[in-house]
Structure formats: structure tokens, C-alpha cells
Amino acid sequence: MEVILKTGGITLDNYRLYEKTPAVLYEDVHLLGNGSLGASVYGGVPYEQILINHDTLWSGQERDKVGKGTLEHLENCRKLIAEGKLKEANNLLNDEMLGYWSEAYQPLGNLYITMGQSGELRSMKQRRILLKETPYEYENYSRILTLKDAVERIEYDQNGIHYTREMFVSFTDQVLAVKLTAQNGVMDFALGMDSPLRHEQLVYGKSSMVGITGRAPDRVEPYEPHFNPPIVYKADETSDALRFAAAARITATDGEVIEEEFRVYVKGASFAVILLSADTNYTGFRMKRKKEESEVFKKCVERIEKASLKTYEKLRKDHIADYQSLYGRVSVDLGEAVTEGLPTSERLKRFSSLEDTALPALVMQYSRYLLIAFSRPGTQPGNLQGIWNPSTCSAWACNYTTNINVEMNYWGAEALGLPECHMPLLEFIKDLSQSGEKSARELYGARGWVTHHNTDIWRMTELAGEDASWAWWPFGGIWLCQHLWQHYEFTKDVHFLKETVYPVLKGAVEFILDYVSRDENGYIITAPSTSPENKFFYTGQRTERDISRIDAENRFSANESDISAICKASTMDITLIRELIENYVSASGVLGYGLEYDEEITDLSMNLLPFQIGKYGQLQEWDKDYEECTPGMGHVSHLYSIYPSSVINAEDTPKLYEAAHMSLLRRMQHGSTRHSWPGAWAICLNARFGDGIQCNAINSQMPERLGASLLVKGVLQIDAIMGWGAGITEMLLQSHTSALHLLPAAAPSWLNGNVKGLRARGGFTVDIKWKTGKLERAVISSVTGGHCKVRYKNTLTEVFVPAGGAVTLDGKLKQKSK
């Protein structure tokens, strides 16, 4: 049943993902979650598969694999760099000093609902339908995920009966709830479960329940590199891998329930309610756990029994109330919606050629929906795919990648009014600061803590593997520290600053003080150093031969003998150090602490290699003005200084700001990706440069590789949609400099609109309304109160917002009386 919505402005009720067909590919499923329990819904007819994930189900176990050879080779590597032998240093790193892949995030199981089956007696007609040899006739199909309530609803008609399938994942009751209905008729269906992991089916008798128990692999390799065997299981008695369980029960129906050996059947029902719970025996970082799978299953059953004391309607009401307490904080309207009656997949296809101002608004709200769904207090942070993963050997192990991806997942958390959903990452960083102490000591002989390019549920902090261009990244933890400081800047939570931010920043500073060295000119540098995942020609200019072999998106396309990833003092390193020191000094001042390591920090701040401008007028990416191997590289790590950082900005460093802008223009000129996560980063950067036209141009290209779920096709990464939502927010409001900047990069096509509930640094909440492209009204409120500057175009004003109060400004930033 096609849903046609009114045009002329989006309301909160109208934000939804909508399709007229079931999903065939995983990137087209609809995603439900409560932070820990994830459900991927295909919406198939007559055969529904709901893939179940749990945020704590990973391969492997706690381990000690710190590379023993790294420290002994470190000084030799630094010597080679000092002598200008960059390729030799790169080779030494690759051959002797790197590590291994993280463990892999795992799929837990599948819930199957097969319509038309009322028992184990076999039907050739049913078989042919399931094998798709005989078409299954139905009409008026729709599947809709409504963002206002986080409820999925599937509907279709067949033989005069209207079937509905409604479901949600409740944070309040920690279950997936599914309600099936047959209007003007009855239905038969079968319920079953399995898992792609080693598992057992459980048999119950008269319980209306199906279930599985099992355990995760002891080691899993990602889909590349191809190590065999890619999946390893030890014997049960010697394995400390995670145990898991899941249970699903028919808790209400007016039909006949038939229990058979591995399935439950419902016959002649007009409705049925299914509750599912899943869990693992993971108890927390460095905490002991029991190996008995039966204990995990018992917990699942108890959760279902408790939830089943409520009616489906009560479960739904409580779910929506909890969810709306977060989602309802922000609303946005960017103007008339011209394609909202179309399926989301069609809207995405048409966006490059048809202006659809409502789609960016949907993207912003959908990024908020996803953050609530994959990251709630007490859960693990969202990985490369949030909490949704169909594959045992997934892309890049579906891990936490710290040179952009896990951070991008959380770029919008504070500004989009979801600081609670930021907490899983912040707690994770705190754990890494503890596990990373051993890596700092044994890999570098350093104080403090370090983490590298990849990590996992076991809080891996050792070096990653394969290639130095990404694996040599002792600054992953430094980047993550920014999230701690951002949370404080937005919330002004002094208790959090004292108990979490300050000690973690202090440990990161200690590591940096021990890692840096001094070059022949007296500058303090980092070595070895990389600009994550990019490489350069260390021998000079490109040759015609080199140019012919360069591909815009392939960093390995040039002659390997002429390029290196290793240098000293990349701009990314310098930026991260400057930001870390500034934040640490600021935290010490707020808390009234004397500055520890005062002389060392002063020396570092005064003598750190300065930023440099290259021959093209660009901000240099490395210590020298090397030619990039891939000038259109998607990683723009040297522009971290612009976004998400603000070490370089228009107010304080205008010349460097213009040079950074030139760097971005050159990247884009050379084919820098305008979709997936690089496109999202480019939107954020262009917003910081105040270029709404370029932001909107990239907006129009972002859907190119996105499925109907807005996951990236093929690799299924979630960072693109999360970064895209953050970029749209940055177009509407910025607060990284001395003022709250209203509509700094709004797209010219967003003529009329309003946004409510955006957050700004300093603890402020901002509502903005504009008409015919001009500011009409802004409301600044605050729980704690305080002074703030407000900028709109070339007008700047300062206001005082009383605690618990608000100030209203007109289009000229004049304060309006109540």
C-alpha cells in the first residue's frame, strides 16, 4: 500500500524509511535496536528473516599479544628517518614492527517467520513457493520504519486478507516484540531460529518457545586478508570464547499453538505476539564470566517472562515513551518535500538530479535514530556497522577503526542532543586508557597509554597489521580524547571532567611527552609518523610513468618503490598534539589543578614543528612538501585541524585556514570521493569553510553507494550516514569558535525552514527559524546559564542567558522582549 504524504513541510510524524518491496540485499533491510539488541528486518513474504545481533558477541577472548619486536627496532627506524631513508624505515616497520587484526564482531542468529506453514507435514506447493519456483501472489505491499516511534510496520493484501507485521526493539523491556495480524481472516505460520555460529537448537515441549545456545569462534579473520582457516573453534573445555543464547516465544494468540521438535506453529490465528531476547555471557572489561550457556539462556527466558506480563500495547507504549524522551528533543524542517511519497530507495536515486530539501532533514533525523538504536548507556559503542552485521567474516572484522570511522559514528552526538548516547564511546575510551598502559610501556618504553588503528570488545590497544600507512597509528587514542573534551564542552559536566576526562587526558599527554623527539633543527617532532592511509613520493616529483598508474581512489596504484607512508611529524600528528595539550591545560585550569609536567609541556608547545604552507598554497600534509601518491585521497587527515577539531580556524589562524581550504579544494579537484564516509567528512569541512553550495553539491552525491537502509553498499559501513547527519547539522549551527554561528553554511535551496533543539558548546540549546533564506528568529536557552556570543553572517552580538531561561533574537540579532 503506497503511502502518499502531504507536501509543504515535513512534520515529526512524516520522517520514515519506506519501501514497496521486501529487501533482497542486506544493505536494503530496515534496522531496529536498543543499543545492545539489534534486529535487521527483510520484510519478506511469505518468508520473513529477522537477523539478530548483540553488541557483546565478538570472537576471541582477552589476550596478550603486544609485539615484542617493536621497541627493539624503534630507534633504528627513527635513525633511518633522520637520515632521509624513508623507504627503508617504511620497510622495517612493515617487516618487523606491525601487529595483527582485531577480533571480529559476530552475528548471533536468525528468527524465521514462515507464513502458511501449520506443521511439519510437507507441501509441494509450499516448497515451490519457498524455492521461488511458484510466484507468491500478494499486493499493496509496504514496509515502513517510522522514526518518531522506532516501529517497523509491514503490510500486504492476499486473497481478501490484510496482513500486518509490526515490530520494535524495546530498551525498557530488552526484547524484540513482533505482532502479526490477519484482518478479515486468519493465518498460519511457523516460528524457528538458527545461528551461523556453532550452536544447538533447544527443545521445550509445551512452552510455545524456540531457542538456541552456542558460542563464538575463538578466532575469526576478516574477509581480507585470506588466512585459512578463517574461522577457528577450540574444544569447549579449553575455549574461553563468548557463549550466547536467544529465545523467542509466542506470548499471545487466538490461534492453535503446535509445538514440534525444532519449531513452533500457529494455526488459524487472527493475531499473534512474539517476544525475543538474546544475550551473551560477557560481563564487562576485565571481568570474569561463567561458561555455562544455560545460564545465558535462562536470563533470556526470564526477560521474556517478565516482558510478557505486559500486553503488546503496553510494551509498545513504554518503548515509544522511552525512545521519544531522546528522539523528541530535536525537530527539523528544511522546506517542501517533493518526493516523500516515493520509496526511500527511489528518493536516494533521484536526489542527484532533483532538489529534495526534505531528504537532508530525513538524513539528520535518521542519524539520530541510528545513534539511539546502536548506542545507549551501558552498551558497547557502535562499530563499523553499528550493531548490525550479517557476516561471520565481515569487512574489516566489523571492528572499531580509530583513524576516522568510530569517531565519525559519534560526531553528531552532542550537537544533535544525544549526550547519553555518547557515553558508551566515552566509557570505552576510559577502558582503553587502562588497557593501553601496557602497550605504551612495552611497545614504546613510554608512560601513559596508547591505542592504535583497530580495537575490539577486548579493548585491544596493540598495533594493527598489514601496512604501515594505517597500522602505524599510535595516535588513535589521542583522537578519541577529543570526544571526552567535546562532551565536557557541550555539557559543562565538571564531575565528568574530573573523574573521566582529566585522568585520561593526562595519560595521553604522558605518552606524547615520551614519544616525541627533537630533529636537527631543534623542533619537536613525531617519528615514525604517518598521515593515516595516505602515501607520498619521497624521491621528488611524479613522473609521466607514475601519473599513468595513479587511480584517484587507490593509494597503492603508483610504483611502490617510489613511495612511502612513513615520515616525521605529519600535520595530523602535530594537530592532535596541539589539541590534546590545549585541552589538558584547559581541564587543569577548570579543576584548579596545578599543571603537571609544566616545563615539558611548555617546551613542547613552544618548539613543536609548526604548520607549513606548500607550493600550491595548501596546508602541507607532511613535514616536507611531498607530492601525494593519491591526490584525490578520501582520508584528509591534515584537515582534522578544521573538522572535527578547530585548531585552525578563521578567527585565530586566518592564513592557515585559507591554506587548509586550498588543500580541500585540491583534494576535490583530483576526484576526492563525494560519497560514503569521505563525502560526509567533506560536507563537514565545507560547512566549516562556510560553503553551503559545495555542501549541497556533495549532499546530492552522497546517496550514490547507499542502500535503502543508508548503509554503504558492499561493506555495510554505517559511518557515512552518521557523518552525513553531522555535516547537515554543521551547516545549520556551529559553536567551535568564540560565537554560536547561525546558519553558517545553509544550502541556498533551503529557503524556508526551522530547527529546534540543537546543542552548542557552553551548554546552550538553539532553535532557529528562517524565511526566504534569511534569519527570522533564534531562541537560545540554557540549563546552567551564562554569556554567549551569537553570529549571523556579518552581525555579532552578545547575550546573557539566565539559568533555566531563554533569550529570543530577531533576524538582526536584536533581543526581543517576552
TrEMBL record:
Domain Glycosyl hydrolase family 95 catalytic residue range list: 311-732
BP-aspect Gene Ontology terms: carbohydrate metabolic process
Any single Pfam family the record assigns to this protein: Glyco_hydro_95_cat
Gene Ontology MF terms: alpha-L-fucosidase activity
Residue ranges of every copy of the Alpha fucosidase A-like C-terminal domain listed in the record: 734-797
InterPro entries attached to this UniProt entry: 6-hairpin_glycosidase_sf (IPR008928), 6hp_glycosidase-like_sf (IPR012341), AFCA-like_C (IPR049053), Alpha-L-fucosidase (IPR016518), GH95_cat (IPR054363), GH95_N_dom (IPR027414), Glyco_hydro_b (IPR013780)
Record protein name field: Glycoside hydrolase family 95 protein
Organism, as annotated: Anaerocolumna chitinilytica
Phylogenetic placement of the source organism: Bacteria, Bacillati, Bacillota, Clostridia, Lachnospirales
